Amino acid sequence: FASAGNEIAYKFVTANPDDNWLVVASPDGSNSIAVEHLGDQTANVVVNWSPAGNVAGLYRKSSGLDSQEIFLLGKSGENFKSISAPGRGFEAQWSPGGKQMLYSVYSTNTGYRPELHIVSAQGDDIGRFDKSLNLRTWPEKCVFAGDGLNLYCAAPLYLEQGSGIYKEVAADAPDTIYKINVKTGYKERIARPVNESGFGFFTVSKLMLASDESYLYFSEAGGGVNKIRLK
């Protein structure tokens, strides 16, 4: 669903690559429009609506042994600038206003472990001001504060080499939670969740922030939801 809830986007995939498209439609499936031909590249395209609703997906294209070029696929055929990512396995999350994009990539420099970056993703600044946050985790384990200036992320205490390629090797790794200022890159550890007896670490699958940002909620990989008081 687009952020406004009035449109959906999906990949229409068939046995014939000539018939594979990124499609935008009304929520009930009517008024469908094929917006981008995917061909045999369906595995490299992900549906990822921008907050403004003008970008419906992202296309990852290899540009070197340790790099990818990311194309923003416009809902109406817009020709946006691309993003050069210093690694492979690009995964991304938009900031609340859509001005920036949080993403992770892995490379030989990280031992094929995912590392977070923040980059401008709007207007003429698309692809500029790319900065590593020096934290090894995935965007799916992060949540932005409402102003987009701060970010909360759960990062595994340890990641084996190659975990960027094979996520399953980190499925049971306990997490530490950090707060990061995306402008300065400053980060602070705010929690290493344990159970009531002080033992047993948690593996976080998703972070959620209360509307007044007084609590940070996290769901466990094995089930269950917990909260951390922030204020």
Task: Provide an overview of this structure.
By secondary structure, the protein is mainly β. Helix content is 0%, strand content 45%. The protein is built from no helices and 18 strands. The strands form 5 sheets. A 4-stranded antiparallel β-sheet has the order 4-5-6-7, with no helix packed on it. A 4-stranded antiparallel β-sheet has the order 8-9-10-11, with no helix packed on it. It has a 4-stranded antiparallel β-sheet with strand order 12-13-14-15, with no helix packed on it. The mean pLDDT is 93.
Furnish the topology, listing elements before pairings.
Layout: E1 8-12, E2 21-25, E3 33-37, E4 45-47, E5 55-64, E6 67-74, E7 79-85, E8 88-94, E9 100-106, E10 115-120, E11 131-132, E12 142-144, E13 150-156, E14 175-181, E15 187-191, E16 204-209, E17 215-220, E18 225-229
